[in-house]
Amino acid sequence: MPTLDDVYRFLLTPRWLALHVVVLLVIPAFVLLGQWQFGRFEERSTSSHRITGNLQAAPVAVEELTSPGGTVSTQDKYRTVLAKGRYDASAQLLVRRRVQDKAVGFYVVTPLVTANGTGVLVNRGWVKAGSTADALPEVPAPSSGEVTVTGRLRPSETEETSGIRDRAGLPAGQILLINTEAIGRRLPYKLLGGHVELIEQSPAAADAPAPVPTPDVGEGGGLNLAYGVQWWLFIGVAIGGWALLIRREAADLRAAASAAPGDPAPGGPEPGPREGPGPREPATPEKPSASGDPADLRA
C-alpha cells in the first residue's frame, strides 16, 4: 500500500515546482490589482459626490473661492459662482481643439473686468471650426454693457491636468490651454485664479456661442468596484484550480500504485481462456487381429 509521502512526492518534481511558483506569484498580483481597483472606486465615488454637491450648491461670489494670482482648490471645482463686470472684447481668445457634439471647434474665452479692476476669465461657450484649419470661426461678440455671469468655477488648465500639449507658433488670438497665469501676463490687470464656465448671464446676450455641457458625473466608479471584485474572485479560481490538479494527479498515482503486477490497466480487456493445445489424451491400444498373425499387427 503506497504511503502519503509516496503519493505526493510528485509535488517536488520540476514541473510541479514551476506551477507552485506561478500560483504564488499570481495570487499577490491579483490581490494588488483588486486593491488598486477598490482605491479607484473610492476616489471616483468621492469625486462624484463632491462634484454633484458643488453643482447643486447655491451660487457664491467668485471672489469668495479664488483670488488674484491664486488657484482653485479641488474641493471648489464646479462650484456655481457669480461675477459682475464688463467683457474686455479686445483680450478675447479662442481655445483650439475642443470637441463638442462630436465636432472639433473652439472655446471662446473673454475676460470679465469687475468693478474693483480685477478680471476673471469666462468661457462663453463653443463655436464650430472654420471650413479650413486656417479659417477663423464665426464668433458672436460679447455683450457691451455690464453683465452678471453665473457659471461653474474651473481650475487653470495645464499640460498635466488636461493631457493637452501646449506649443508656440499659433495664430494670433488662439491658445491651446486656458492657463490663467500664462494669459494674465498679456493683460494690464490681474486675473482671479481659474476660470468660469458660463451657464447664463443677465441681461442675456442676443447671440452667444453654444454653452458648454454640464459635466458628466458618471457612475461614481461602479465599474472599478466590479473589476476589484473580479480580480479577487480570480484568486479563488487560481487556488481552486491548483488544488484540483493536485487531487487528480494524486488519485492517478494511487490507482497506478494499487494495481497488482500483471493485472490489466483499469478499463482494459478482461482475461480470457488460454489459447493452444490442451492436455493430451492417452492413446488407445490397438486390438490384435483375429488371426493373431504378427503381420496383421504391422499392417
From TrEMBL:
Residues 263-282 have a biased composition (Pro residues). Pfam families: SURF1. Residues 255-299 are annotated as: Disordered. It is found in: Cell membrane; Membrane. It is a multi-pass membrane protein. InterPro entries: Surf1/Shy1, Surf1/Surf4. The keyword Cell membrane applies. Keywords: Cell membrane, Membrane, Transmembrane, Transmembrane helix. Signal peptide: none annotated. The chain crosses the membrane at residues 16-34, 104-122, 229-246. CDD domains: SURF1. Belongs to the SURF1 family. This is SURF1-like protein.
